[in-house]
Amino acid sequence: MTAGRGLIFLGAPGSGKGTQAQILATDLQIPHISTGDMLRQAIADATPLGQQAKSYMEQGELVPDDLILGLIQERLGQPDAQKGWILDGFPRNQSQAEFLDNLLTQIHHEVGWVINLHVNDDVIVQRLLQRGRADDQEETIRHRLEVYREKTAPLLAFYQAAQKLHTVNGDRSMEAISDSLRMLLTT
Ligand code: ADP
Known about the structure:
With 187 residues, this protein is an alpha/beta fold.
């Protein structure tokens, strides 16, 4: 991947984007930047950010943008992100997408592909119930899916219009999905 070029993983909770993002990041030797992981770490460390984010996450709501935007700006400025990066869980709404666009222009980075890992809702609920993370209760899962549909799914059209979007069927084996992604990135 050329300098300052990144990938964005979009997809509903439980689509498997975190797993695929991690595999690709290892392959490409670029950082996997997951806002969900960063927030969970902040909660584990009981930082002020973690304390502010916790109740939103437990309820399946997005945490307020002002908690996230600075975090992303700082992370994309780190030395290990200068060759490229994979964003997982960001952007998650229109204002985050606009912030990212402006930030990338400023720091001379660009979005290579936006990967939409697509999985049907019933499969998602089953997967998340099995995962059993703190915010993986059925009611919270359904709420996160609603939030996804309302706030995040509209970004698909935004990146489609920018001719960046590539949809991949996420209802396949981990290996089959990784192979599709590798093929996409080497063509
Ligand atoms: P999932 O994809 O299963 O929803 P994540 O780890 O991506 O898991 O996110 C877990 C939670 O963290 C979200 O429900 C939300 O509360 C919070 N979160 C993560 N990323 C963002 C973001 N970019 N903006 C706002 N909230 C976020």
